[in-house]
Amino acid sequence: LVRADLALRSGTDDFDVRLLELDAMWPAGRPASVAVLDARRWLDLDDPAQAAEVLLGSLQREMSHIQSAIWRAEALRRSGRLADADSALARPIIRHANDVPLGRSVRARMAIDAGDLPTAQALAVDLPFDEAGVATRWYLARAMGESALMERWAAEWRQQVQARDRDLQQLIPIHLRATP
After folding, report:
1. For 6-15, 124-133, 153-162, which range has the lowest pLDDT when averaged over its residues?
2. 124, 177, 129: which is closest to 155 by C-alpha?
């Protein structure tokens, strides 16, 4: 699991091999932690619908897995399914997911997508300066039209993220992106 996580974070080509190794260890079904890694890879490949599907299967087996619920909400949000993302984080069994930094990051992004910038700002103010927190700050600066802040947060994010398939533009829901 650690090798797969490191491969995902560094963007190396052996992530798929590591995932196959992990699948072989659990023929009856992946544990939630493996499903989260697989879903994050789908998000890196800009396929949030597939990421949400992977995590739905995981949550059917482990309903209270907080990371699965949070990443599923993020995948649904990126797919443009904001109401479903909200429902995913509102389930009583995982409602405390909103108290962890990653959950607050996703909630802030959801508020941005809903046009509620004051709520997004309140959620983002005490986020850690990790990958998710910095990405959320970039997304908020983008929504506010603050190009200098966007550049600052993008530079900070690039220093933290090594995965070559991961891009800040992937935070923008697919249906809101400009088409080339």
Report:
1. 6-15
2. 129
Contact (Cβ atoms closer than 8 angstroms) between residue 27 and residue 43: no
What contacts 177, CB < 8 A, 6 or more positions away? 169
Section 35-49 average pLDDT: 88
Kindly report the CA angle at 155 between 149 and 158, in degrees rounded to 5?
A: 135
| Displacement of CA 60 from its chain's centroid (Å) | 19
Helices 82-90, 101-113: inter-axial angle, 10-degree rounding: 150
Q: Smallest Cα–Cα separation from 157: which of 127, 112, 177, 120?
A: 127
Contact by Cβ (8 Å): 85, 110: yes
Identify the three-state secondary structure at position 180: coil
